[in-house]
Design goal:
By secondary structure, the chain is of the alpha/beta class. It has a domain at 111-191. 42% of the residues lie in helices and 19% in strands. It contains 15 helices and 12 strands. It has helices at residues 58-65, 94-100, 117-126, 132-137, 141-160, 176-188, 206-222, 234-240, 258-262, 265-272, 276-287, 294-297, 300-306, 312-321, 333-341, and strands at residues 18-29, 32-43, 47-51, 69-70, 73-78, 87-88, 102-104, 194-198, 226-230, 243-248, 251-256, 331-332. A 6-stranded mixed sheet has the order 7-8-9-3-10-11, sandwiched between helices. A hairpin with a 2-residue loop joins strand 1 (18-29) and strand 2 (32-43). Helix 3 (117-126) runs parallel beside helix 6. The protein binds adenosine-5'-triphosphate and magnesium ion.
Length: 342
């Protein structure tokens, strides 16, 4: 079974109770509305993909969910345990969101390049230790046992993602696909309930993509972690997602099963331009291949050609977003709003 032919994964939960909920989230930067009344619900045990063209607001949404941005409106709530109390994540600092049980990876790989593979994961695992990584570095006795356990846990996570035997390599020496795996191991080190993956397969080759698709499914089924997945590779999305939410210009334009979403005219037009839905329907009729997934059937290269690559300014903005989530203060988007309106 390959990522291109597999459809909805068998045996995974699709009808669970919500674990993470965003309601009416609006985020503005000056005159630009990055997210406009966005609501979505991640159900416990599922993989929910968030797709949409470049600049649609996907990373902005992740940044709101993880405390990097403070949206001007809306609520973000997380329920760590089934039936437990709901915790508001809105305005919570990134490291506290992480501690609550929501972990993430970043669109642009952000590893400590000069550190070893093991050290990269250990730093995240040690944030669970009572006095944190500094206490561990100082060798405080009460932390020695915890540090050993963090190291053990880090090794387990590295083995889980397929990096066993590479623990002592310097992170920057890893292949691109392995660096993506390392990011996932690091995100797993804090034992999250929810994992947010921002383009985990970006820049990887087809076989690395397939391996990452399988890893994402294993994180979901074997570790029982609910996953919110941003990804441009439609084959990967269609192969792992239980449900899909589509953003365009900061708004949710569709939500449903992969089959429903990929036949949705608004989604096809968002990706391929106005009139594309009719053209594809006609072409499909001519070719007699009705039933083929429409968006999945469009080669990734075509999608990339039609959807412009992000402008340099967007890349710069993304680099800004990529401040260390562990250390970053909440960026109050209302400040940006005020500055923009001056
Ligand atoms: N810090 C920021 N300052 C100003 N504008 C921002 C900032 N962050 C995001 N934006 C803008 O918000 C919009 C949504 O950007 P975002 O990065 O969320 O899109 P995306 O869907 O993740 O796109 P891509 O697929 O290219 O990663 C874009 O117009 C972007 O320029
Ligand atoms: Mg993005």
């Amino acid at each position: 079974m390959t990522a291109s032919t597999e459809t909805v994964p068998a045996g995974t939960a699709t009808g669970g109770e919500p674990v993470l909920r965003a309601q009416g989230v609006t985020l503005r930067f000056g005159g630009l509305t990055s997210l406009d009344q966005v609501s979505l619900e991640l159900r416990r045990g599922e993989i929910l993909a968030v797709i949409g063209p470049n600049g649609a607001g996907k990373t902005s949404l992740f940044n709101c969910l993880t405390g990097v941005y403070l949206p001007q409106q809306g609520s973000i709530d997380f329920q760590a345990e089934p039936g437990g109390s709901w915790l508001s994540l809105r305005g919570r600092k990134p490291h506290l969101v992480n501690r609550a049980g929501v972990s993430r990876t970043f669109q642009n790989i952000r590893l400590f390049n000069a550190l070893t593979v093991l050290e990269n994961v250990q730093i995240a695992a040690e944030t669970r230790v009572s006095s944190g990584p500094v206490g561990v570095m100082l060798g405080l006795p009460q932390n020695n046992k915890a540090a050993r356990s963090a190291r053990h846990h880090s090794r387990e996570m590295l083995e889980f993602v397929g990096l066993r035997g590479k623990e002592s390599l310097i992170a920057s020496g890893l292949s691109y696909g392995d660096q993506r795996r390392l990011e996932i191991a690091r995100a797993l080190a804090s034992d999250p309930q929810v994992l947010l993956l921002d383009e985990p397969a970006a820049g990887t080759n087809p076989s690395e993509k397939l391996g990452l698709a399988q890893l994402i499914q294993r994180v979901n089924t074997e570790l029982g972690i609910s996953i919110l997945l941003i990804e441009h590779d439609m084959r990967l999305v269609m192969s792992v997602a239980n449900r899909i939410t589509v953003l365009n210009f900061g708004k949710v334009i569709a939500s449903g099963s992969p089959a429903e979403v990929q036949q949705n005219p608004a989604v096809i037009e968002a990706y391929l331009g106005s009139g594309a839905a009719e053209e594809l329907a006609a072409a499909e009729g001519d070719a007699g291949d009705a039933g083929d997934p429409v968006i999945a059937a469009v080669p990734e290269q075509v999608v990339r050609d039609v959807v412009p690559e992000p402008a340099a300014a967007d890349e710069a903005a993304d680099a800004d977003q990529a401040v260390d989530a562990e250390a970053a203060d909440v960026a109050d988007a209302s400040d940006a709003d005020e500055e923009g309106s001056k």
